[in-house]
Specification:
This protein is of the alpha/beta class. The chain has 18 helices and 21 strands. Helix 12 runs parallel beside helix 13.
Length: about 575
């Protein structure tokens, strides 16, 4: 028996298995194909499922060579590519046949056999799916009914829908350059996790440019718990806003581009959603008639709405009772001071308003310059400036004030800010070209101011007051040639909590500022980020960047005048 078993092993090593034969293939055809490789005998097996064959060679080396050659250069017979594999013994495998041991699993115990993986409880599968991307959860649904149920339950931990989320990955329906988020992928995710989603953010134009207008209808129909809806980068039709009327718990709404008048639909939505706290309108045809009868929101932001009417905004502000934050930016149709009069006359707003942002709004028609060679001189309107001074004196509870790129901000307005707004924490006066010389000196009275932004001011504006603002943590002073090393060095010695200093484009700044920062910052034990691109400061060996003092000599941001409308 031992000799017979050894003979079987030797015979199996000299034999190869041939598949994918034509129905009319004969023994002599196979001998023509493998004869030059040392084939001695061929046996054809005819079956209903397809013909196969066994070819025996003179030596085991010849059989191995044929199998290797078939992997590189396939064999053909009757125009069919043959499948050539090593053959087992014709009889059952005996004890003398070597059995190959399974490879050692480096993660032994973590990979379950298919039978045990299919028997995992749904709770365990849902916990596993919560750590997977959406493309892998879609594959889980195709395994079995139990795995599909576990994949569906894994969506309950996602409460915010954001295309920037890691769950979308980089290669499944959502990439930065090639394939933005499609409506089909959006619908797939909403149908599975819509009942858990409370925040819908579509504010990245690179990722949501391919979404069709009906995407909002899909979200409104399946996301009954939505509280925050951001449609900044999605172009919608105003009738789509009707779908949001059923969301009784809506608290924040941002509407971007709309192809048509948005006021009628928005008015009906505001009447039905009494819990709305924040309303943001950006770059659409909003005129203000939807809020003319009054607004109940706590935060109102209107940006780049070119059809916004002054009388509608004034009527809304006159009757507002709990408005805490107001932003008006880039609305060039507001050419009178009625909104300022409404703010000053509303006693309730003087108590509750803590954030006021007026950006690129002058409240009077822009001056017309007849001669193109005539230098552009800002023309101030005395009535607007007088109202602005009264506004600062009335709203003494302001914490944030932004009056960037407004021509009516001059020394009298800044004096009112320093005199009345002692609780101010954040101030932005960038681009206010009516300021001159020592007009900013009253800002030294703002003992609570932590963030100050004063980009692109007139060349004669001085910065000596900075050394007396000891509470500053962030100073942005870009493209100001009148700010010198002495001004910034005084600030570095006085402000112990200073963490960000942006001086890009200031030609009056040199290595003296870096030297003083290298001496004072390590003593305080707090990291200071300094941006000096476009200044006269250059890297020096004796002024090396340390852990606490991090200096960037390359300009990171664009010049201020390129960011006026952003």
């Amino acid at each position: 028996m031992a000799g017979t078993s050894g003979y079987r092993v030797v015979e199996a090593e000299r034999r190869v298995y041939v598949a994918r034969l034509a129905p009319y293939t004969k023994k002599k055809d196979l001998m023509k194909v493998f004869g030059s490789w040392g084939a001695r005998e061929a046996v054809v097996q005819r079956k209903a499922t397809g013909n196969t064959a066994f070819v025996t060679f003179e030596t085991a080396e010849q059989a191995s060579r044929v199998v290797e050659e078939a992997g590189v250069h396939p064999f053909f017979c009757h125009k069919r590519k043959l499948g050539v594999l090593p053959a087992d013994s014709w009889h059952s495998r005996g004890e003398d046949v070597p059995v190959r041991e399974p490879a050692v699993d480096p993660f032994d115990g973590l990979i379950l056999p298919p039978s045990k993986a299919a028997a995992l409880p749904v709770e365990c599968l849902a916990h596993i799916g919560a750590y997977l991307e959406y493309r892998d959860r879609a594959r889980m649904e195709q395994v079995s009914h139990r795995w599909r149920e576990g994949s569906l339950w894994s969506h309950q931990g996602v409460t915010a829908f954001d295309p920037n989320d890691w769950r979308w990955g980089n290669s499944w329906n959502c990439t930065w350059e090639k394939n933005p988020l499609s409506t089909e992928a959006f619908r797939w995710a909403i149908l599975r996790g819509g009942r858990y989603i409370t925040s819908l953010r579509l504010d990245d134009s690179r990722l949501v440019s391919a979404l069709r207008p009906q995407a909002l209808s899909i979200a409104a129909a399946h996301c009954g718990r939505l509280r925050d809806v951001d449609l900044l980068s999605v172009s919608i039709r105003p009738p789509v806003l009707r779908e949001l009327k059923t969301l009784r718990g809506l608290e924040s709404l941002t509407v971007g581009r709309c192809t048509g008048p948005v006021d009628p639909e928005l008015k009906e939505l505001l009447d039905n959603n009494t819990a709305l706290q924040t309303l943001t309108l950006v770059g659409n045809s909003f005129t203000g008639s939807a809020i003319r009868d009054g607004i109940r929101v706590g935060t109102l932001r209107i940006r780049r709405c070119q059809r916004m009417r002054s009388e509608c905004l004034a009527s809304a502000l006159a009757s507002a009772e709990r408005l805490a934050a107001l932003e008006i930016g880039g609305c060039y149709q507001i050419v009178d001071a009625k909104p300022l009069d409404a703010l000053i006359g509303n006693r309730q707003l003087q108590i509750c308003l803590t954030e006021l942002i007026i950006h690129l709004v002058n409240f009077y028609p822009a001056p017309i310059i007849g001669d193109i060679d005539e230098p552009e001189v800002p023309i101030l309107e005395p009535e607007v400036t007088r109202r602005a001074v009264a506004l600062m004196d009335s709203f003494q509870n302001l914490r944030t004030l932004d009056v960037s790129f407004c021509r009516w901000v001059d020394g009298r307005v800044i004096a009112a800010v320093g005199r009345s707004l002692r609780s101010l924490e954040r101030l932005n006066i960038s681009g206010c070209m009516s300021l001159r010389g020592e007009d900013l000196e009253p800002l030294s009275n703002l003992s609570a101011c932590r963030e100050l932004q004063m980009d692109a001011l007139f060349e004669t504006v001085r910065g000596g007051f900075l050394s007396r603002m000891i509470a500053l943590t962030t100073l942005t002073c870009r493209d100001n040639n009148s700010v010198t090393d002495d001004d910034i060095c005084g600030l570095l010695r006085a402000a112990a909590q200073l963490g960000l200093l942006n001086l890009e484009g200031c030609q009056g700044i040199g290595n003296l500022t870096v030297g003083v920062a290298s001496e004072t910052v390590p003593v305080r034990g707090q990291i200071l980020y300094m941006y000096l691109g476009g200044t006269r400061a250059r890297p020096a060996k004796r002024q090396r960047a340390t852990f606490y003092n991090r200096v960037y000599y390359e300009r990171i941001g664009r010049p201020t005048y390129f960011q006026v409308d952003e």
